[in-house]
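Co-fold these.
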Amino acid sequence: MLFNSIDFAIYLPIVFIIYWFITNKNLKLQNAFLVVASYVFYGWWDWRFLSLILFSTIVDYSIGRFLAKENTLNKRKVYLWISIVTNLGFLGFFKYYNFFLDNFIQAFTWMGVPVSGRALHIILPVGISFYTFQTLSYTIDVYRNKLKPTKDFVAFAAFVSFFPQLVAGPIERASNLLPQFYTKRVFNYTKAVDGLRQILWGLFKKVVIADNCAVFVNIIFDNHQEYSGSTLVLGAIFFAFQIYGDFSGYSDIAIGTSRLFGFNLMQNFAFPYFSRDIAEFWRRWHISLSTWFRDYLYIPLGGSRGSKKQQIRNVFIIFLVSGFWHGANWTFIIWGALNALYFIPLLLTNNNRNHIEIVAHDKSYPSLKAVLKILLTFGITTLAWVFFRAESVAHALQYLFGICSLSLFAIPEIRPTYLFILLVFFLIIEWLGRTNKYALETLFCRYKRPIRITFYYFIMILIFWFSKNEQTFIYFQF
Amino acid sequence: MNLFIKKTLTFCLFLLVLISLRFWILPYYYGNDIYASKIAYFEKTKTPFNTVLFGSSRLYRQLNPRIIDSITTDYNIKTFNFASPATFYPESTYLYENFIEENDSKKIKYAIIELQHLELFKNNAKTIKGNYWNTTSNMSHCISLINDSHYSKKKKNRLKKTILLSFIYRVLDFTSIKDFFKTKNTFNNNNNNGYYSLQQEVADKTSNLESILEYYKKFNLDISNYKKLVQTAKLRDNLDVSKLTVNNSHLKHLIQIIKLSKEKGIDVIYVLPPKLNLEYYKALLPIVNLLPKNNIIDLSSYKDHTNLYGKDASFDFYHLNNKGSRLFSIVVGEKLLANLNKAK
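Predicted complex below.
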């Protein structure tokens, strides 16, 4: 079920009513209902893959229980590895089997040893990368004794399958989300209203910004040979907004929906396009994944300790794995490598933590220097996005070569005025709300109710007006 | 909690009112591109049409107004075909009822409407074409029609869910307004007064019906298809109509349309086409028996219209090719003439 579908618009109030009015007297019942509601939500897409979630739930719950009883380090390690191998095994099979097979065959053929293998027609289960990482974090935290293993299977099943964030995150830590299933949720008016506001803004980002950018992105990327360099630049910029609107929009809806049910999820995006360098960008983009890699991969590898060589190696590993997490294609790996290359100079010069606060956090306008830095960061990020969007490395290179021509200075063939206006409006709202968790959080709260409500209606009308037929979220494929 | 629900409902209700304002702007046919372009043509043309056809592709693709006009010259009939693809009941009657409401009915003397049974597809419910006609009155009519039908309880529930879903989508799907103004799809008149045979459209290089052409070729290569077609048609002939249930809601609606039209000076003639599936005949034949004889043309009998079932007349299971359409138009024209003579 898509968040931007009428199905969900009908489903959400039904779940909400049952959750708060029928199952609210008994915590176990309420959690069990959340599991059922989440399974229905997921099964709406393809019920066959529910077995994967259930299997993953049983495996990690059992391993958590075994770890609780086991004090021997070696045995604990074995349990941990069973969990890692099982979870990553599923992920590897569904997501990477054909990629590895293709590359294996190509490599051997290149070496003059022809081998054959049959690619499988594999459907990638929606959200597998997300819930796999979420359950893995549980086992790892239990192994590290940072988290007490749960005895409550229903609560654990609800944690794994919690429908607002099941298919595209935020990738929650067990230490944050799981305890919320142990305590009785109390309805909080302010929290629920805030949730609705965040859903509204998420829908705007997805339906108005991302889906409308997508129309032009698809045209330009699919027919890049026919367009001037300036149009290709525009296509890349539109994609930068598409992916941001799409993914952060999804996260906003997920967080907002969770708040309606009394849950708090972590912030996943913090206005990344206002970043002044790439290090800041990565602290503000897909925070739940970045911190996951930081805690479970980067730090165990040594992090920023050790020699410069080791630091560079660690940064490269993190970004390459992050790229590969996004998809089984060399384009994602190159995207990761590019980001690593952007990041390393900052790390080597100890400038990777220069910008912790949001730009102009105590002022209305940024300095010229900050604007130039933001533009530069946005520029190099957009350049990397070309690899992320392209079908293949060759496609991305042709696209970039297309940009590097005299036609870069020509007037773009595609100039969707309405989209430019929407983007300017979007950026203004994002700028005004940049010090909050999401742009609309407190933006209009200081105004009188009629003004505030009119603004919300205006956003709703924009959503209705610019909506297209239920476009799927990009991040579902990851 | 109560305050939250109250405020959210008020917000949503007002939003609903706000988005429903679009129904004031949109014409009643906003979800049917072909019909919209036919209306545009009809309103522009100087030809004094006095007879209109409403229905699905079974009339759009098969009933040639020029043939009807040539047979009924004594009555100075000038026919325009308003039928459009996949326009099933009650969409077709919805269009007709609104058409006579909006147009100067004095000009129209006869309306030929395809007799159809309720046809609902779950996937279509989400499309504008599949829900723009689903007004509150159409939805409640459909529900009572489903209740009165001979279908199993399971099928009734499924159909009710579909009609409800389609209604919700109609109300919430705000894109309709944008799509309507974007629509540039026009029918190919080809001097045929709204008629366009399937075979002709497939043959036209401008058409995008390649998949249908492939289907047509496959259908024609497999001789067993004709056997199946004839078998079904024979089963229809063997039906004991007296034992079939009459759908009173459907009958009442059809009679109401006859009366409403009469008030506006229009004679309605329902046409029961050949080659429908058996389930539809089971639902429609008892109604045919109860409708006034002058208001019905029944072409469902295989025995009486064997020529419409032959390979040389068929396009596929449900449609006729050029030759079949010509035969069909002649039969309808002749039956219409007979009805008119009787009424005289």
